[in-house]
């Protein structure tokens, strides 16, 4: 199955209730710059990155896909996913300007499309190609009711609905607002409303200084919080090591890390408890698997960031023994041919062949910005 053509796609999908905020970002759409890779057998593979729908940088990403990486792929056999990843990652002109950032987001979309093609060649879902039986249990936790721009009342009612009507046993709440005291009030209100059996995660999206993270991190223990995600600057290994040695609430991070070596440094420093690799930043499935193995070797659970890359992460989590839980955010799924499904708080194993990110004709006709 030889590659014949790369076709750029940029999807911009509306997010919940017209707009969501966390401590660091405020978005109205989730961006999915990506590619359709065509082959001489007529198969088409789809892969996307994940952004905050900033069109100028989405265009940089798809330009990198088609015009920088594209020429290196034409004529290549799609089966050689690891060899092709190495070839593209190490291509010196691109490596000189890349090694993380936009070239990683571009390579990630290509890698997902190549795995999509490989799955279609064997006519299996990605979880099956990665060795799962399809009977694995993968619990979902819901982030979509915990946004920082939700009022405390909205926060409580959304989280209650998710638990009482949709069967979730875990929800995530954004913290890192302007007032730490208000953060704690919001958590207290949700804990009171949900009772002690529901797990509550928190996510500061990198906002706090070390003193703030220590002060607020210590208070989280009052509410039995499952983890504090990205409490401080994304690359601050020493700071997170200091925090981990000071507070009892476990630390989750990884959605902003581009290199396996960064994950190694956080893990070796004892600065992370829940490892959250993302196929977007790690340049695709191939390197994601390396990080999951590294975490597993250190007996750390892997709970991938979704943002909204859940369509692919659900496959990887079903297949990897370090994964038992995955974030749920619903922004892209209904624009995909085979939308991710959660029932009574658990992901249902997708049955269609592929890696999960094949857009519908409707999506390509209505939210494609190319
Ligand atoms: O941190 C996250 N999940 O854990 C979400 O991806 C971000 O909050 C969204 O992308 C909005 O910035
Ligand atoms: Mg996060």
TrEMBL record:
Residue ranges constituting the Mandelate racemase/muconate lactonizing enzyme C-terminal domain according to the UniProt record: 152-250
Entry cofactors: Mg(2+)
Alphabetized Pfam families for the sequence: MR_MLE_C, MR_MLE_N
Listed PROSITE patterns: MR_MLE_2 (PS00909)
Keyword Cytoplasm: no
Keywords, sorted A to Z: Magnesium, Metal-binding
Keyword field contains Metal-binding: yes
Top-level lineage group: Bacteria
InterPro entries: Enolase-like_C_sf, Enolase-like_N, Enolase_C-like, Mandel_Rmase/mucon_lact_enz_CS, Mandelate_racemase_C, Mandelate_racemase_N_dom, RHMD-like
Protein name: Mandelate racemase/muconate lactonizing enzyme family protein
């Amino acid at each position: 199955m030889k590659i014949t053509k790369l076709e750029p796609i940029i999807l911009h999908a509306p997010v919940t209730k017209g707009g969501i905020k966390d401590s660091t970002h405020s978005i109205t759409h989730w961006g999915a710059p990506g590619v359709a890779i065509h082959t001489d057998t007529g198969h088409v593979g789809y892969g996307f990155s994940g952004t905050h729908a900033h069109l100028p940088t989405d265009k940089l990403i798809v330009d990198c896909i088609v015009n920088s990486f594209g020429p290196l792929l034409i004529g290549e056999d799609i089966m050689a996913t690891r060899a092709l990843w190495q070839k593209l990652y190490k291509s010196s002109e691109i490596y000189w300007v890349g090694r993380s950032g936009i070239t990683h987001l571009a390579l990630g979309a290509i890698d997902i499309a190549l795995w999509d093609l490989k799955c279609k060649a064997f006519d299996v879902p990605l979880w099956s190609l990665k060795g799962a039986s399809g009977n694995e249990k993968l619990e979902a936790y819901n982030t979509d009711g915990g946004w920082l721009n939700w009022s405390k009342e909205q926060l409580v009612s959304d989280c209650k609905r998710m638990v009482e009507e949709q069967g979730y046993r875990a929800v995530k709440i954004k913290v890192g607002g302007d007032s730490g005291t208000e953060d704690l009030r919001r958590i207290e209100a949700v804990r009171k409303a949900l009772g002690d059996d529901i797990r509550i995660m928190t996510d500061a999206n990198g906002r706090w200084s070390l003193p703030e993270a220590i002060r607020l991190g210590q208070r989280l223990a009052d509410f039995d919080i499952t983890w504090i995600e990205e409490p401080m600057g994304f690359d601050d290994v020493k700071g997170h090591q200091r925090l981990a040695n000071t507070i009892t609430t476990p630390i989750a991070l990884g959605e902003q890390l581009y290199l396996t070596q960064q994950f190694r440094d956080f893990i070796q420093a004892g600065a992370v408890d829940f490892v959250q690799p993302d196929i977007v930043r790690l340049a695709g499935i191939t390197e994601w698997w390396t990080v999951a193995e590294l975490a597993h070797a250190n007996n750390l659970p892997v709970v991938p960031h979704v943002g909204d890359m859940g369509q692919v992460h659900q496959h990887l989590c079903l297949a990897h023994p370090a994964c038992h839980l995955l974030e749920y955010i619903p922004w892209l799924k209904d624009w995909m041919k085979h939308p991710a499904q959660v029932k009574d708080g658990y992901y249902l194993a997708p049955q269609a062949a592929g890696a999960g990110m094949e857009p519908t004709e409707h999506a390509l006709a209505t939210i494609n910005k190319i």
